[in-house]
Every structure is written in C-alpha cells, then in structure tokens.
Amino acid sequence: QWKQLENLYFREKKFAVEVHDPRRISVSRRTFGQSGLVVQTWYANTSLIKSIWVMAISQHQFYLDRKQSKAKIPSARSLDDIAMDLTEMGTPKVSKLVTLEAKNQLIMASNGSLISSGSQDSEVSEEQKKEKIMELKKKEKLLQEKLLQKVEELKKICLREAELTGKMPKEYPLGAGEEPPQVRRRVGTTFKLDDNLLPSEEDPTLQDLESNFIIHQKLVEAAKKLASEPDLCKNVKKKRKQEYADAVKKLQEIENSINEYRIKCGKKPTQKSTLTLPGERIP
After folding, report:
1. Which residues, other chains included, contact 114 with Cβ-Cβ below 8 Å and sequence gap of 6+?
2. Which residues pair with 173 in a beta bridge?
3. pTM for the complete prediction?
4. Quick one: which H or E segment has residue 41?
5. 153 in helix, strand or coil?
6. 3-class SS at 49?
7. Are 218 and 242 in contact (CB under 8 A)?
8. What's the pLDDT tens digit per position in 198-257?
9. How far is CA 257 from the centre of its chain?
10. How far is CA 89 from the centre of its chain?
11. Distance (Å, rounded) from C-alpha 151 to C-alpha 100?
C-alpha cells in the first residue's frame, strides 16, 4: 500500500522501491541493522528505468492529491468533477517530471528519488528548510554587522592618512551621493631630526644635554608654526600660543642647565636659544 512506501528511486539501470513490511525483518542498507524495510529492485536500460520511475512518482502524487481531496471535501462529487480535478492536477506534474532533465532542476540524468522529486508528504523536509532559512538569515545579519564594522575602521584609517598627506585616499568608502569629507593636513609631521646636528662630545653627560636641547629646539619650531597658522578660532589660537611659550621656556631651562654644567667643567657658556629665536616675545 502507498502508506507503506518509504522511497522510490533509480540509479542508472536500477529501479528500486523501499516499503515498510512489519511481517518481514531484513538487514537494511540505510540503517545497517534489523528493520522492517524491504527493498524491491528491477533492472533495465536507463531510459526505460527512468520512464518507470517517472510514472511511479506520478502515481504516488495522484495518491497524495486524492488523499488531500478526501480530507478537504466532505460531500461526494460527480465523476466529471473528479476527472476535471485530476486533469488539472496531474497534467502539470507529469509534464514537469518529463521536462525536469532539460531544465536541470530536481532530477539528474542518471539518478533520482522520491525525496528529490519534491513530494508533498514530507513535513520533515519543510521543517528543515525553515530551519536552514533561519540559520542563513542569522549568518547574513552577522556578516552585515561585521561589514559595517570593517567599513568604519577603513574610514578611520583613510582619515588618518588624509591628515598626514593632505589628500583623501581613493579607498575611502562613500555611500550613494555622499561627498568625501574635507580634512586639513596636520602641521608638524614633516619635522625630522638631522643626524648631523647631534654633537660628538667626549663627556656623555654633556652630550645627553646637547641632544635634549636639539630635540626641544625642533619642538619649539613646530609649536611656533602651529601658533602662527591662520584661520584659527580664538580658543585654539590661545592654547597654541601658550604651548609655544611653554616650549620656549623649557628650551631656555635646558640651555641654562647646559651652561651651568659647562661652567662647572671649566668651559665657556653658550647662547644657542637666543641665536635660534632672536627677539621672541610671547604675550
């Protein structure tokens, strides 16, 4: 009986029917153990085997449609109505099974099964499809969130590069109709220490003081350039002037330390800061 059917399938020249028979116990290849599953097999050429399989699938679909019709329609119908319904339901399914090979949708050229033909009696397969769809949607959401995070990181990197080079890189991600932001180049990144400026004194203490003086001298020049930058708001300009004044004061203190050490060692004092920054007056 159809209710005992487990599967219909063909593999090249073999057509097989799997049914549940509680009266017989055999070793099943599907479970590798004792079960009531019986496999009936026939062999013929590939085209004939496939035709038999298509007819068997169609007959099984007719059984399912008839079962559903009985459940939905409480009253008896005429033979003409039944014949009309069978024509409407059966013809598209048979034509679909015949043209499946050309469309390459469900049945492959050399094999097929009842499950792969899309039977409507498998509720488990529908549940699996729903679970798979939900799982794919979750993965899609996680990937979108990760993509947005990476885009934000790329924007930050491009902005840092634009501040250093003064030019926005072409890799900056832009949305539809979005204009790239205007970024001002940071002043002070072009200052580099000259290796020839480092003194070569025999005294290591004096050499450390001289090196410290050269480094702070470059810091003073950078602070001066920042303080003299045009188009600054009042608060920023005041802050940069104060930073410049602090840098000059620190440089003078380092020079005083150098002169005190030179006098202690019996050497003449220097006036490096006054020669480097002549006439500087900070209000």
Report:
1. 5, 7, 8, 9, 57, 60
2. none
3. 0.29
4. strand 37-43
5. helix
6. helix
7. no
8. 455 467 888 888 888 888 888 888 888 888 888 888 888 888 899 999 999 988 888 888
9. 58
10. 45
11. 44
In angstroms, rounded to a whole number, what is the distance separating the alpha carbons of residues 78 and 87? 14
Q: How many residues does the chain have?
A: 283
For the chain, the DSSP string reads -GGGEEEEEEETTEEEEEEE-TT--EE-TTTSSEESEEEEEEE--HHHHHHHHHHHHHHHHHHHHHHHHHHH--S---HHHHHHHHHHHHHHHHHHHHTHHHHTSS--SSEEETTTTT-TT-HHHHHHHHHHHHHHHHHHHHHHHHHHHHHHHHHHHHHHHHHHHSS--TT----TTPPPPP-PPPTTTT----GGGS---S-HHHHHHHHHHHHHHHHHHHHHHHHT-SS--HHHHHHHHHHHHHHHHHHHHHHHHHHHHHHHTT-----HHHHHSTT----
Per-residue model confidence as pLDDT tens digits over 141-188: 999 999 999 999 998 888 888 888 878 888 888 888 888 888 776 665
